[in-house]
Amino acid sequence: MANADSAAAPRRERADARRNRQRILEATIELVLEVGGEPPRDTVARRAGVGIATVYRHFPDQQQLLRAVALEVLDRTIAAGCATLDESGPGGEALRLYLHAAIDAGLGVVNIVHPLVEDTDWLDRRAAAEEVLDRLVAGARADGAVGPGTSAADIALAAIRFCRPLAIGLDPEAERAVAHRQLDIYLDGLAAGAG
Q1: Measured between alpha carbons, how far is 191 from 143 in angstroms, rounded to an integer?
Q2: Residue 42 above 60 pLDDT?
Q3: 106: which of 29, 85, 136, 192 fits an S-S bond (Cβ 3.0–4.6 Å)?
Q4: pLDDT tens track for 111-149
Q5: Distances (CA, A) of 115 to 63, 70, 139
Q6: Is residue 55 very low, low, confident or very high in pLDDT (cuts 50, 70, 90)?
Q7: What is the 3-class SS of the chain, one letter each residue?
Q8: Crossing angle of helices 2-35/172-194, nearest 10°?
Q9: Is residue 9 classed exposed, middle or buried when 0-12, 13-18 and 19+ CB atoms within 10 A define those classes?
Q10: What is the C-alpha to C-alpha distance for residues 192 and 176, in angstroms, rounded to an integer?
Q11: In whole angstroms, what is the distance from residue 149 CA to residue 162 CA?
Q12: How many CB atoms lie within 10 A of CB 123?
């Protein structure tokens, strides 16, 4: 019995470490979107419900934390795009679902932390994101939801703009609601212009 207990302890510790790392990432994403910049690590620790030593253990310096946050958000948005294509197929509604999912995933973080991260060579993530968005925009073009002159880059840059905090003191829920509403107005305008 002692052997089974001692073997389970490292698995529990690894699971706890993974949960703590994820809580730190979630807290940092929330704070970056709230403050519009780089949050202090003691604030991240408090928000995540962990000690500052846990933050340092996972992310020895601020660069590693910001890089991990940007990669987390990129991975989430890529996964959302793939899931949307799998579930909805291409088309204007798929593009709309993906862009709303990107707002909820915290895409605005990438634009905010990108200049703060020294190593921003994310070619694999960029290629994956571009491939998903190209497919979504091509499908939206095919069903008339966007015009032929609308590029994936246009959509990506607009989405990032909608995801950025307004810095006027709105709480995060109100901020996200505004972003979703403005995204719908933008997409409705693209569809009207395409028709």
Answers
A1: 10
A2: yes
A3: 29
A4: 788 777 776 677 888 889 889 999 999 999 998 999 888
A5: 11, 11, 32
A6: very high
A7: CHHHHHHHHHHHHHHHHHHHHHHHHHHHHHHHHHHCCCCCHHHHHHHHCCCHHHHHHHCCCHHHHHHHHHHHHHHHHHHHHHHHHHHHCCCHHHHHHHHHHHHHHCCHHHHHHHHHCCCCCCHHHHHHHHHHHHHHHHHHHHCCCCCCCCCHHHHHHHHHHHHCCCCCCCCHHHHHHHHHHHHHHHHHHHHHHHC
A8: 70
A9: exposed
A10: 24
A11: 21
A12: 8
Token couple for 73: 């958000």
For residue 85, give every residue at least 6 positions away whose Cβ sits within 8 Å of its Cβ, in sequence order, or none: 94, 132, 135, 136
The two tokens of residue 193 are 């212009």
Total-model pTM: 0.82
The pair phi, psi for residue 42, each rounded to 5°, is -70, -35
